[in-house]
Amino acid sequence: RTRVANFMAAETMAPKGDAEAAEVKKTRFLKPNKVVILLTGRFAGKKAVVIRTMDDGTADRSYGYCIVAGIDKYPLKISKQMSAKRATKRSRIKPFVKVVNYNHIMPTRYSLEVDLKHVVSQEVMNRPDARPNAKKDVKKVLEEKYQSSLKTGKNRWFFNKLRF
Q: 0.90 cut: is pTM over it?
């Protein structure tokens, strides 16, 4: 063998020891509160927050997926000369709640500190009659977060529409 072949063979060999030790550990990069961008479907190009992840899938979904809550309709710009009534109307957010395959999302480096685990769960996603109530709760939480982001300037990127 040549030097390159020896080097390649040494790299591909499993380390000595248990078979379990030779297994490569998967790193979890999609964690709750991570901001992702949806790539396909009706909400393509929309930003969302990961609520819960299922890396190994379940019996009915054999692929890795996550439950996300995102913004379908972003709030509009507000200026200082607008009345309070008009400003509140333009601050409205239309949310969505969805189960998404890992292949159809793109993770970002951002995270959004929102507590939506108690609002949206696996049981809620399985029952179509419970989804509208979950969307209303998500709307309240996201609108509160938006109002606080206007004051502090933190997480402002999440509430702006993607331009592409």
A: no
